[in-house]
Amino acid sequence: MAQELIRLESLEGRLLFAVPKKGRLLQASLNLLEGADIQFKRENRLDIALVKNLPIALVFLPAADIPTFVGEGRVDLGITGHDQVQEHDAGVRALARARRMSNEWDTNAAPANGKPQGCEIVMDLGFGVCRLQVQVPAKGEYQQSRDLIGKNIGTSFVHLAREYFARLELEQDGVTDPALAEGRKLRTKIIELSGSVEAACALGVADGIVDLVESGETMKAAGLKAIDTVTETSAILIKSKAPSNPALVDLIAARIGGVITAQKYVLCQYNVPRERLPEATKITPGKRAATVMSLDEEGWVAVSAMVEKKQVATVMDELVTVGATDVLVLDIHNTRST
């Protein structure tokens, strides 16, 4: 009942922002929203949360469904994996092919809700980095992906797996004409699995799998090895092609972009003799340029520049060698930087 009250009374005029409701992307997504000062309280078991300080409603959805809701214009923004967007797009292509083959495809037909279909990638969010890989038993007979043609493949990424093995079959058969490729029946059997895909080979369900791999430890424990990578993926921010409030979408994107930049950089400040300034700014060029100010001491300047966190120790060492003193490194909590 509470969910219905939120739906009926409180969503009017709010931009809808889809967030993964569980899984590997959830906590990092929540941290990102917090850093962007998107304030909300999610009531227990509710999949909609109203943002307190902006006209936004967060909608918690399975990551695999978010590209569909954004692509159809049902929600304006979403955080999901690039792999999920690719799987969704592959599904759309499969549906289009099926309709063309059955003469049901109408190129002049308008979308059911009158909105442009599809989603646009706003930015890579830098977390949830994985690889969608073809995995086979480590002690088995299969050494390359084409060895699996005609075999059983277990996966939750059925559309990407079908496209991948369709390309392999075309290469094996020497088919280069797209017209001849249309409508060919896939010899490889793609078996849809919703969970524990890594167990499919051991249980005799599949000869190989196509699944997401982060560290690879789970696959090794299941007795599997990778023989190819279908695609690399990470979390991304996507938007509808016709958002209800484009200005608010841009504001949220700017805030999130600022958080991501702040996570990657620190502010390095130091004093250096003016005669050594060219050498120092070569070490710390900044994102656009270093900030240089004269000190109240003849021949000295103060310099501020953004430096990548992963390089900060080396940068500090190099600054000292060119005569820099009072080298400080400060955290950046947020920024607006392009």
From TrEMBL:
Pathway note: Amino-acid biosynthesis; L-histidine biosynthesis; L-histidine from 5-phospho-alpha-D-ribose 1-diphosphate: step 1/9
PANTHER family reported for this sequence: ATP PHOSPHORIBOSYLTRANSFERASE, ATP PHOSPHORIBOSYLTRANSFERASE ATP-PRTASE
Keywords (A to Z) from UniProt: Amino-acid biosynthesis, ATP-binding, Cytoplasm, Glycosyltransferase, Histidine biosynthesis, Nucleotide-binding, Transferase
Enzyme class: transferase
Subcellular location, record wording: Cytoplasm
GO cellular component terms listed in the entry, alphabetical order: cytoplasm
Catalyzed reactions: 1-(5-phospho-beta-D-ribosyl)-ATP + diphosphate = 5-phospho-alpha-D-ribose 1-diphosphate + ATP
Organism: Thermothielavioides terrestris (strain ATCC 38088 / NRRL 8126) (Thielavia terrestris)
A Gene Ontology biological process term: L-histidine biosynthetic process
MF-aspect GO terms: ATP binding; ATP phosphoribosyltransferase activity; magnesium ion binding
Principal location class: cytoplasm
Keyword tRNA processing: no
E.C. number(s) listed in UniProt: 2.4.2.17
Domain called Histidine biosynthesis HisG C-terminal: residue spans: 262-334
Domain (ATP phosphoribosyltransferase catalytic) ranges: 63-256
Similarity field: Belongs to the ATP phosphoribosyltransferase family.
Transmembrane segments: none
Name of the protein: ATP phosphoribosyltransferase
InterPro entries listed in its UniProt record: ATP-PRT_HisG_long (IPR020621), ATP_PRibTrfase_cat (IPR013820), ATP_PRibTrfase_CS (IPR018198), ATP_PRibTrfase_HisG (IPR001348), HisG_C (IPR013115), N-reg_PII-like_a/b (IPR011322), N-reg_PII/ATP_PRibTrfase_C (IPR015867)
